[in-house]
TrEMBL record:
SUPFAM superfamilies: P-loop containing nucleoside triphosphate hydrolases. It comes from Xanthobacter flavus. This is ABC transporter ATP-binding protein. One of its GO terms (biological process) is L-amino acid transport. It comes from the Bacteria. InterPro entries: AAA+_ATPase (IPR003593), ABC_transporter-like_ATP-bd (IPR003439), ABC_transporter-like_CS (IPR017871), BCAA_Transport_ATP-bd_LivF (IPR052156), P-loop_NTPase (IPR027417).
Amino acid sequence: ETAPPLLSVDNIEVVYNDVILVLRGLSLKVPKGQIVALLGSNGAGKSTTLKAISGLLRTEDGEITRGDVTFMGERINGIEPDRIVRRGIFQVMEGRRIIADMTCLENLRLGAYTRRDNEVKSDIERVYEYFPRLKERTGLAGYLSGGEQQMLAIGRAIMSRPKLILMDEPSMGLSPLLVKEVFSIIKKLNQDLGVTILLVEQNARVALSVADYGYIMEQGKIVLDGSAEMLATNEDVKEFYLGQG
Ligand code: ATP
């Protein structure tokens, strides 16, 4: 039989402030070693899905009121975000959320806060191999360009040595050239380090170009899923999510 997925989200319902129902029975699976894309239009509930997995929902008065989130065979809904990080799930937030008045290096060290091993230093070198530009920037992170901040946010995720990275809109605010660069690094991370990635994107085309599998959601539910190859050639997907060109 096939191995159980690294992450399994089963039929979850999420409510904000006890009243606003945003996820309405959403299910998805993320197999170990894959890049899975979660696509859909504005307000479909993509960010909410990531926050339900990372536990960050709690910080916004959101709650999983039905269903289960299972990671490595254990139910994790309702657990505090920092305990979820310790289990190996790291979320790269939308808008990057780096610490502006700390340096790059300090931001990277912060990513390793849950670790007790002695390899933090060599991991910093590894992040610099992926993102040479970050090594050259010795000033405060707040002065980095948008693209560099996104790289730093991903670098910080690497520093926590996660099993699963949740990425929220890595293309946001980046020029087409930088989008290409960031996504090729995401693919490389997945291939070199074997990190599993669940990726939320508005830019369906670029997401499907690196993903193995994709889900499309609308109004709090999955409406279509399949291999990235299949989705990229599906007529409905082309019409509604891939736009022209
Ligand atoms: P976007 O790409 O615009 O971020 P999304 O698919 O990620 O869209 P979510 O951010 O998950 O969608 O939002 C889904 C719905 O939940 C929206 O209607 C939004 O207004 C609502 N929502 C999100 N966060 C909260 C919150 N903290 N409190 C109340 N409602 C919220």
